[in-house]
Write a structure and sequence with these properties.
Layout (H helix, E strand, L loop, with lengths): L4 E2 L4 E4 L4 E3 L2 E3 L2 E4 L12 H7 L13 H12 L19 E6 L3 E6 L4 E7 L4 H4 L16 E8 H4 L4 H25 L2 E2 L7 H7 L6 E10 L4
Antiparallel strand pairs: 1-2, 2-5, 3-4, 5-8, 6-7, 6-9, 7-8, 9-11, 10-11
Helix pairs in contact: 1-5, 2-5
The protein binds flavin mononucleotide.
Flavin mononucleotide binds next to loops.
Length: 224
Amino acid sequence: MQINKRSNWFRTSILASALMLGSTTFAQQVTNLPKPDLTAQSTTMIEALATRHSVREYASTPLSKQELSNLCWAACGMSRDDNHRTAPTAMNRQEIRLFVFDKEGVYEYDAKGNRLVQKATGDKRELLAGNGGGGFKQDFVMQAPVSLLMVIDFDIFGSEGEKAMQMGCVDAGNVSENINLYCQAVGLVTVPRATHDTAALRKLLNLSDKQLPILNNPVGKPKE
Ligand SMILES: Cc1cc2nc3c(=O)[nH]c(=O)nc-3n(C[C@H](O)[C@H](O)[C@H](O)COP(=O)(O)O)c2cc1C
């Protein structure tokens, strides 16, 4: 693959520095997103609040790179300056990490860089569909072209314990509600979910016990 190759929608590059994971060298693929379109057509906030509802079926149509950029930005992108996000966090710790799952792989949203950093290849949406171990499972998650996973990072938050857990959960809820309302406003559909396979996600994303997958939102276009 060529470095810094431009296309209409995005540029893909390989990070110059490879991450050392144990004895394995892993070069992360980076996808630059188009600038979020803050003029995208939407309903009013009042209408979005009045009509927001959970939807559990989706058209298979993928989201465009622009739609994905807008969605990630609405969730927890940089807002009024380079130290504030669209979703508030306790003490502005910005400890909620956002991962994007699609048919091709899993990526972490880098809000400052407005880009996606690939974390895994292949379709891993299954890990969001169910709790794992043959437990509760919701197959509709596999229909949604993308799912957004919120992870509380207690290393970034700077402490652990009951209060940190409370703040992390509230902050993740803020991100999820941004997604819910944004989707409603622009004609996308979603549902906030606490179901996912925490252990398998930690393994896949190389997370420690200081990083907790907490909520996810499958997102798509309405099924006709
Ligand atoms: C924290 C939280 C966890 C949820 N987890 C799930 C879930 O795992 N699966 C699901 O189908 N819906 C889940 N929901 C969606 C709720 O069932 C839904 O929001 C609720 O029934 C109210 O419906 P409404 O969103 O249409 O107003 C969750 C909602 C919240 C806020």
